[in-house]
Amino acid sequence: MFPAESIVRNSAIFKSSPFHKLTNEQIKAKNEIIFKITSSLSKSEFGTLILVKGEAGAGKTVLMSSLIDDLLNSDDTEFIRENNAINLVVNHDDQLSVYKEIEKKLEWKSGSTLDVVMKPTQFLNGLKRNDSNAGIVVIDEGHLLLTAKNQAYQGGNHLKDILSKSKVVVLVYDDNQIMNKSQIWVDDSFLTLQHQAMVSGNLIELNNQMRIKASESTISWIRNIIDKREITKLKEDKNYDIQIFNSPRELQDAIKLKDKNQHLGISRLTATYDWEYSSQSKPKDKDYWCVEIDDWSCPWNRELPRDKKFSKLSWIEQPQTINEVGSTFTVQGFDLNYAGVIIGPSVKYIDGEIKFDISASKNKGAVQNRKLENGKMKNFGEDLLKNELNVLLTRGVNGLYIYAVDEELQAALKEAIL
Question: By its UniProt entry, which Gene3D superfamilies does this protein fall under (predicted)?
Answer without folding.
Answer: P-loop containing nucleotide triphosphate hydrolases
